[in-house]
Amino acid sequence: MSIRFTRVAAVIAGTSLMLASATACSSERDGDSGDGAATGGTDSTATDEAPAADAGDTLVGIAMPTRSLERWNNDGANLETLLGDLGYETSLQYADNKVDQQITQLQNMINQGADILVIASIDGTALGPVLEAAAAEGITVIAYDRLINGTENVDYYATFDNYEVGQLQGQYIIDQLGLEDGEEGPFNLEPFAGSPDDNNAKFFFSGAWDLLLPYVESGVLTVPSGKAPASNDDWTTIGIQSWESARAQSEMDNRLNSFYADGKVDVVLSPNDSLALGIAQSLDSQGYTPGEDWPILTGQDADLANVKNMIAGMQSMTVWKDTRTLGQQVATMIEQIVNGEEVEVNDTETYDNGVKVVPSYLLPPQVVTPDTIEADLVESGFYDAAELGL
Ligand code: BGC
Asked: Which residue's CA is the nearest one to ligand 1's atom 6?
């Protein structure tokens, strides 16, 4: 049993009651620490110079969806380091994109006596019951990058502006094709969307489609495969389950084999880098050549393989979300929660999870093109020039 600061207390500034409660409960947790073995792979860090009140007594459970995508490895490692440097105990777990595994990991974190849970969900609709258990223990829940739906037991959401990600991709396509300058095409477009169980995927698609659909309707953009959702709400019809590169590759193979016997694809709207990787492999295997007939291909995340593809002319852009800043924002939220300060958010309208609007902090995403890789990704220290072969 572990009662710590409650959800309500978390937003009340300077409550000594809360701090007393936090202290009392962390000693309960210490007595309970044997449960931690159940989770496996737990990494905890503490320093001698914990500046925040009670940081050393606060266990933060970090649930990440999968190790199979580069960004989540970076996200997890970054959060673990940031929070460790601030003196927090952490328990970082990856769930192999399996919903049941993530639920088990969360339950284990609750049993371990976690005070705060930071969760990048796999299926944002599947965590209601386990978060009910977290709420019963007074645990504060931060949805990380992806919203958690259908429950009141999520306190904050920290993410990048997901709709803006899609807008940046859509606007890039419009600019490259010169559509606002009157280019009439028709240009062949193939749109893709992300995993149907990921709440973000809807926002990415909507951001792009709000800009591109008018050109599809006017015939400037044509979609030979017919896979052009009539409205944003139909986005799951072109969703790629689990954001898998291999599924995107075979979907692209199918479209090219079935609908492009006599033509070429000019543009592929890919919502992220893992899909763009599979799509690029398909284009390559179908004989498209960088610098000649390679289509405009969008992405998101600035994954290493994709940045290399950009340098090789096999991807046109990526939307970079500097996950270091997201980790920093979450660390700030955690400090504010633990110190009993008001938690800073900048959006209290957009992210309705079906039960409540979750107070959110949205960070700005940024377009990176081959011309800006050096300035954006290398000079900021996100990548070494050497690992990009520059
Ligand atoms: C994230 C993206 C990522 C995708 C696949 C989304 O929820 O916001 O950055 O590319 O998941 O992991």
From this structure: 200
Q: What is the pLDDT of residues 367-390, one digit of tens each?
A: 999 999 999 999 999 999 999 998
Nearest residue to 98 (alpha-carbon basis) of 223, 242, 276: 242
Shared-domain flag, residues 171 and 74: no
Residue-wise pLDDT tens digits, 11-29: 333 333 333 333 333 323 3
| Residue 159 Cβ contacting ligand 1 at under 6 Å | no
pTM: 0.85
**Ligand 1 contact, 110 CB (< 6 A):** no
Domain count across the chain: 2
Q: Give nearest CA residue, ligand 1 atom 10.
A: 272
Please indicate, yes or no, if residue 191 is contained in any of the structural domains. yes
CATH number at residue 215: 3.40.50.2300
Instruction: Please check the confidence at residue 244 and state whether its pLDDT lies above 80.
Output: yes
One domain for residues 185 and 218: yes
